[in-house]
């Protein structure tokens, strides 16, 4: 919610010395979190000027410019070279616009003024005197676009005659110095989506007097007057209250007052026309959505009813929507004219030429609004408020407020007759023990303090010995149980009053073995230069399609959510790669060329034959059998480690040329993790989406595949819009931790010198290097290690063969090896390789 501070001060008498920063801090402490304090950023001498003379000059390029002499009051400078010369002090300014004449009041930015809207044209957006078109232009006459104001940007701003004097501060005049609080409003605090609600909280937070803009004395139009528009509510459950007033004879030439247009623009809405702007203004002021119909376009009475399946309505956004019986409509004799509580219809839309308006304000079923807004994928400012719950006592006052503004600023006439159907529903009382706030918060809150806090929030409180009966105010439908009441008390008392108490750690406990090993893994990943990310654990069919998973792939089988955050991601993810690839797309889209990211998190793997999870009430603790039934319905949720890398693995720089990431880098990271966990992983060639079939490795632990690594398939990269040669890895971390000893094997160190032998072996192309390496390493007690350092396919080896070169380290624990020992170990290694893979020594 964007709140202009000067508008807020109309409803709460904030201390003059209370800064906007301090006010934001108070509201944040009061559970209205500040996102930012926005301002225009305009500074310097922006003043009002009067055009004394205007000379049109044709230029060689065919353009006509105006050489103007402008009176800017105390800011006039007669010493500026080439200023038009007479005895009247002024400034000479070049202007290319033609929508003003001599005598007009204009807005002038003098040298030194900073206009952020021009920062892309002028360095820093700072205006200076400069020579152009043969004159020195000592400033600039401004348009609305240059000041980032609403309105026609095709010409400069012309102020109303008599509205200011030359030299007056235009920043204050146009409200350009306005500061706007951008507040994050929790979904349960719909009242704060209005100036009224924020002002009330600001009054409580600061102790300042509050003036309720809904205290309107003028709601006196007779409900049976002759001008009351006929309305029929066929579904009072969906629409318990409906109010309407009619204003006729609005002057279509009247425009929205500048102050009103500026306020709704600052609050984040667009100025459209007087009638539309007034309804938006009152919605922002009171928090109650209002809709206006062009009465000349209505045919017959308004009817509120449920839609019939297949019925259609073209809404104000130009979209034709097919409706269901769960949608509530406002109709006339022709059919639907509005989607109740969400958006009006195009056929009866108010336009700048509208002269007669039927103003509607209604209370709608919040669950119905939420369901329709989601099924129709239509989020509007009205729906945002109606689905959270509005003050049901406001409809009559809201329509009267709109009508009064249309009469005052549009020259209309209020018809005698208020349509008012239904009564505001009453919120149920909440009963709680008087000491509950103190017991829950740990703060010494007595009954008197609790009652005062609740009454400050608009609640009515009855005290009966040790019990409180609280009647929530009509604008707080979220107060439904005793703990909601406790929260309201604590907001006033202050969250900062809650004591910080550290729990006493039980003796002999600490991190579990699994936690310690996960931290070890995190340190290794950070040491590999990977940045940890946390992504949402949700995915959908689009992710599986982009990753190229076959239709029968087990990873497509998900735990589906009853109420997902997004229809595109309806289930829990079965792989970390879905989130990591999205994160990679985001980072590359932000201009990062070299991205190396990792995530450690759970995946959710449903098992065949799982029972559906039962849903229990919250009034009691589930029994042991019920908890067992819940546990049985849970999917497997193992921890996985995922890695995605793109760009350079070794960065280019002054030290030399870099190296791009390779499929082997992803494999090396997993092998490093296995090494620090003291787990022996077998690496095999594999084919698994989304990896390239020729550059994919599977990791096998105790005969089971626990993960894969390699280069992603080009089709996958194209589907995500990623650059070539992206590599990725994902392994089951829980499986590795389960197989990991708490302390790794103790190596046997020998103090005797090592002997090094290189072997080049010829094998079939289908032989895995890992199999050959294992055969060499296990060929005898003297072989300390075998490491592949070269692979060759070409003219020097037979067709269908490849040459793999290994470096052997030979060492004995008790002696220095002789030439005969080394020869025997070498021959044993070759023999073992031949027996295992058919390898022959390359000569």
What is the topological layout?
Blueprint (H helix, E strand, L loop, with lengths): L1 E3 H5 L10 H10 L3 E6 L7 E13 L5 E8 L19 E5 L9 E5 L20 E3 L2 E3 L2 E2 L16 E2 L10 H4 L6 E5 L10 H12 L24 E3 L7 E8 L9 H9 L7 H13 L4 E4 L7 E5 L5 E3 L5 E3 L5 E5 L2 E5 L3 E2 L12 E7 L2 H10 L5 H6 L8 H16 L2 E2 L4 E3 L8 E4 L2 H6 L5 H10 L3 E5 L2 E5 L10 H12 L19 H15 L3 E2 L5 E2 L1 H6 L24 E2 L4 H13 L5 E8 L21 H10 L5 E8 L1 E3 L8 E2 L2 H14 L5 E4 L5 E11 L2 E9 L1 H7 L6 E6 H7 L15 E10 L4 H9 L5 E10 L8 E10 L8 H19 L2 E2 L2
Parallel strand pairs: 12-15, 27-30
Antiparallel strand pairs: 1-11, 2-11, 3-4, 3-6, 4-5, 6-9, 6-10, 7-8, 13-21, 13-22, 13-23, 14-21, 15-18, 16-17, 18-19, 19-20, 24-26, 25-26, 28-29, 30-31, 31-37, 32-33, 34-35, 35-36, 36-37, 38-40, 38-41, 39-40
Helix pairs in contact: 2-4, 5-6, 6-9, 11-12, 13-17, 20-21
Q: What can you tell me about this protein's structure?
A:
- The chain has 843 residues and is an alpha+beta fold.
- It has six domains: 2-39 and 178-206, Phenylalanyl-tRNA Synthetase, Chain B, domain 1 (2-Layer Sandwich); 46-173, OB fold (Dihydrolipoamide Acetyltransferase, E2P); 231-421, Phenylalanyl-trna Synthetase, Chain B, domain 3 (Phenylalanyl-tRNA Synthetase, Chain B, domain 3); 433-497, Phenylalanyl-tRNA Synthetase, Chain B, domain 1 (2-Layer Sandwich), CATH 3.30.56.10; 513-603 and 638-739, BirA Bifunctional Protein, domain 2; 755-841, Alpha-Beta Plaits, CATH 3.30.70.
- The protein contains 21 helices and 41 strands.
- A seven-stranded mixed beta sheet has the order 27-30-31-37-36-35-34, with helices on both faces. Strands 3, 4, 5, 6, 9 and 10 form a six-stranded antiparallel beta sheet that branches.
- A hairpin with a 5-residue loop joins strand 16 (312-314) and strand 17 (320-322).
- Helix 11 packs across helix 12 and helix 20 crosses helix 21.
- The chain is globular.
- It starts with a strand and ends with a strand.
- Mean pLDDT is 90; it is low at 80-85.
């Amino acid at each position: 919610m964007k709140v202009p501070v000067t508008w807020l001060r109309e409803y709460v008498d904030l201390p003059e010395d209370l800064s906007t920063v301090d006010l934001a801090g108070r509201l944040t402490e009061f559970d209205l979190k500040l996102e930012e304090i926005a301002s225009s950023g305009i500074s310097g001498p922006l003043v009002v000027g009067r055009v004394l003379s205007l000379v049109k000059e044709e230029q060689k390029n065919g353009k006509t410019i105006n050489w103007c002499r402008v009176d800017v009051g105390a800011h006039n400078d007669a010493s500026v070279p080439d200023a038009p010369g007479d005895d009247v002090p002024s400034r000479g300014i070049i202007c290319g616009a033609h929508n003003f004449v001599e005598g007009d009041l204009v807005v002038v930015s003098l040298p030194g003024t900073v206009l952020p809207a021009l920062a892309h044209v002028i360095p820093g957006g700072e205006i200076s005197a400069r020579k152009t078109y043969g004159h020195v232009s000592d400033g600039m006459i401004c348009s609305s676009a240059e000041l980032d104001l609403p309105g026609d940007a095709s010409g400069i701003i012309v102020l109303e005659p008599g509205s200011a004097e030359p030299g007056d501060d235009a920043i204050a005049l146009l409200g350009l110095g306005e500061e706007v609080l951008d507040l994050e409003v929790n979904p349960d605090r719909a009242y704060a989506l209005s100036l009224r609600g924020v002002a009330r909280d600001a009054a409580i937070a600061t102790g300042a007097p509050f003036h309720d803009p809904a205290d309107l004395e003028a709601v006196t139009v007779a409900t049976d007057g002759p001008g009351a528009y006929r309305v029929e509510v066929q579904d009072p459950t969906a629409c318990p209250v409906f109010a309407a007033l009619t204003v006729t004879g609005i002057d279509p030439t009247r425009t929205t007052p500048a102050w009103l247009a500026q306020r709704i623009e600052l609050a984040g809405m667009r100025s459209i026309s007087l009638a539309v702007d007034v309804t938006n203004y009152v919605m922002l002021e009171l928090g109650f959505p209002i809709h206006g119909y062009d009465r000349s376009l209505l045919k017959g009475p308004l009817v509120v009813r449920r839609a019939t399946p297949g019925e259609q309505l073209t809404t104000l956004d130009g979209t034709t929507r097919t409706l269901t019986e769960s949608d509530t409509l406002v109709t006339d004799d022709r059919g639907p004219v509005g989607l109740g509580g969400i958006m009006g219809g195009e056929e009866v839309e108010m336009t700048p030429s509208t002269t007669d308006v039927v103003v509607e304000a209604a209370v709608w079923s919040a669950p119905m609004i939420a369901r329709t807004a989601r099924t129709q994928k239509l989020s509007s400012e009205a729906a945002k408020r109606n689905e959270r719950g509005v003050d049901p006592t406001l409809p009559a006052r809201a329509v009267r407020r709109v009508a009064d503004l249309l009469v005052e600023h549009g020259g209309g006439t209020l018809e005698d007759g208020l349509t008012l159907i239904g009564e505001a529903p009453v919120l149920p009382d909440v009963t709680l023990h008087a000491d509950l706030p103190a017991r829950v918060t740990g703060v010494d809150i007595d009954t008197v303090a609790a009652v005062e806090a609740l009454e400050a929030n608009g609640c009515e409180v009855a005290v009966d010995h040790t019990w409180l009966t609280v009647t929530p105010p009509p604008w707080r439908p979220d107060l439904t149980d005793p703990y909601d009441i406790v929260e309201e008390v604590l907001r006033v008392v202050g969250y900062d009053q809650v004591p910080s108490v550290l729990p006493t750690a039980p003796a002999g406990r600490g991190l579990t073995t699994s936690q310690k090993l996960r931290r070890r893994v995190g340190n290794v990943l950070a040491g590999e230069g990977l940045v940890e990310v946390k992504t949402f654990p949700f995915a959908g069919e689009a992710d599986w399609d982009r990753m190229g998973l076959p239709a029968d792939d087990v990873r497509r089988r998900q735990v589906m959510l009853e109420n997902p955050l997004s229809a595109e991601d309806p289930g829990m993810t079965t792989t970390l790669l879905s989130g990591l690839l999205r994160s990679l797309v985001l980072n590359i889209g932000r201009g990062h060329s070299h991205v190396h990211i990792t995530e450690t998190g759970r995946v959710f793997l449903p098992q065949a034959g799982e029972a559906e999870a039962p849903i229990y009430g919250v009034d009691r603790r589930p029994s042991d059998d019920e908890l067992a039934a819940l546990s049985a319905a849970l999917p497997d949720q193992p921890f996985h480690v995922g890695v995605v890398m793109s760009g350079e693995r070794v960065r280019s720089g002054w030290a030399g040329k870099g190296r791009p990431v390779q499929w082997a880098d992803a494999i090396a990271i997993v092998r490093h993790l296995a090494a620090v966990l003291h787990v022996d992983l077998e690496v095999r060639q594999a084919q698994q989406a989304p990896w390239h079939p020729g550059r994919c490795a599977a990791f096998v632990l105790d005969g089971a595949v626990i993960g894969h690594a390699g280069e992603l398939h080009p089709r996958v990269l194209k589907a995500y819009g990623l650059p070539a040669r992206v590599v990725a890895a994902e392994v089951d971390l829980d499986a590795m931790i389960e197989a990991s000893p708490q302390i790794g094997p103790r190596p046997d160190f020998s103090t005797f010198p090592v002997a090094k032998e290189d072997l080049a072996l010829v094998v079939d192309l289908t032989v895995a290097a890992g199999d050959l390496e294992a055969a060499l390493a296990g060929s005898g007690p003297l072989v300390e290690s075998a490491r592949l350092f070269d692979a060759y396919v070409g003219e020097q080896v037979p067709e269908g063969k490849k040459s793999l070169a290994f470096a052997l380290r030979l060492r004995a624990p008790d002696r220095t090896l002789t030439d005969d020992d080394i020869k025997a170990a070498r021959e044993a290694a070759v023999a073992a390789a031949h027996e295992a893979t058919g390898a022959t020594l390359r000569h």
